[in-house]
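call fold(seq) -> tokens
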Amino acid sequence: MYKRQNGTQEDDSKWSENHHYYGLGVKGAYGAFTGSMIFEATDAKGEDVVKAKDYEHDAYSITAGGNYNFGVATLSGIYQYAWESEMYSQHAFGLSASAPLAGGTAKLGARYLLGKLDGDAKNVAKTLDADTKYRAWNIDAGYTYPLSKRTYFYGFAGYSDGAKLYKDVENGKFNGWSVGTGLVHKF
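ret:
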């Protein structure tokens, strides 16, 4: 049997029993400045949630960002507050810049995340003698170079570091280097 996807789970149940995503955003520009604000939510409905009702809750985020084009470089910033009742609440900050360089575009960015576990997640962490707060930061540099109107080369390198709950995470790769390169062609 073919099962459709609604973006968050299989779509073979009636609408009221599936997870749903909701979002509302606004974007504006004034001269060299552009900015946006977005509110997003996912609800915790459905058969799977009923079985795991202690682990899944409605989740929300509010994101605000903007950039200013100075002509020689563009500076961008972003802030996000996200929370899931009885699970976590967190703040994320980002700052980046891009500028033309040797026929391509050089990019530099940094992000910082701080959060805490709440309710059920906090209680589980305490029983495991784990920290209930977490921190992470990363810094990245990248470069793109156009080879034609539809093809470009890219390369990037970055370092990430986590603290508190994220200090020794094995499966999140919060602590370490990342390096990559590639070629993109648009058809």
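Helices lie at 47-51, 119-127.
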